[in-house]
Amino acid sequence: MAKDGKEAIAAVVFRDFRGRIVDGAVKAFSVGSVLLGELSANRLACVMANVLGLSNIQVESDCKQAIELSVKELDPPLDIAALVLILQACAKQRYQTNLGIYADLVLALGKKGMMEDIDRLILDLEREGTIPCDDKGLGRLVKALITTERTESTVRIYNLMKRSGWGSTFPSYYYVSNVLSKGLRRLGEETIAEEIDAEFLVG
């Protein structure tokens, strides 16, 4: 972790059953604590394992607290809850981006007045590159961001949706598009709302 306590560099190494290195990555994270950095490194390992199609993995770390939070049914601090829930899913061999979890956390953070943490949460989600647009939690996440008046984060989710192939083939297409359009207008983003109307035919 950097001396200013705001950045950590994680190194992830994949080994096969013989101990031979088969893949790896190094990534810098913006974090607020050593524990958050350790959890972010574990999450990077889970994301890479998912991309590589690995279903039987063993994650090793020199941070006992990070491992315990990842595999035990504990009540984590709110600022690391999103990462912990994702890692617990990974430990149960069912990792995938669950937008419903993100929606719940946005609302919980909003009630605590932790608005910057909401933006960091969405920024972290954005780093994944794409989101599952067929996830039933997408509409809830959009509504949660609008409810907490996180304009920039709402726009980030919209851009993520476009990069992820958002279109009329998804079941909640018209509903979510309308929520986005009306919500962004309320947040003062008239231009983007008009773009949604024109591109996605929101009535």
How does this model look, in words?
- GO terms for molecular function: RNA binding; RNA-DNA hybrid ribonuclease activity.
- Pfam families: RVT_3.
- This is RNase H type-1 domain-containing protein.
- Residues 6-69 form the RNase H type-1 domain.
- InterPro entries: RNaseH_domain, THA8-like, TPR-like_helical_dom_sf.
- With 203 residues, the chain is mainly alpha-helical.
- The protein has two domains: 1-69, no CATH class; 96-202, Tetratricopeptide repeat domain (Serine Threonine Protein Phosphatase 5, Tetratricopeptide repeat, Alpha Horseshoe).
- Helix content is 55%, strand content 9%.
- The chain contains nine helices and two strands.
- The chain has helices at 34-52, 64-71, 81-91, 99-111, 115-126, 137-147, 151-163, 173-186, 190-200, and strands at 7-15, 21-30.
- A two-stranded antiparallel ribbon has the order 1-2.
- β1 (7-15) and β2 form a beta hairpin.
- α4 packs antiparallel against α5 (115-126) and α4 (99-111) runs parallel beside α6.
- The chain is globular.
- The N and C termini lie far apart (49 Å).
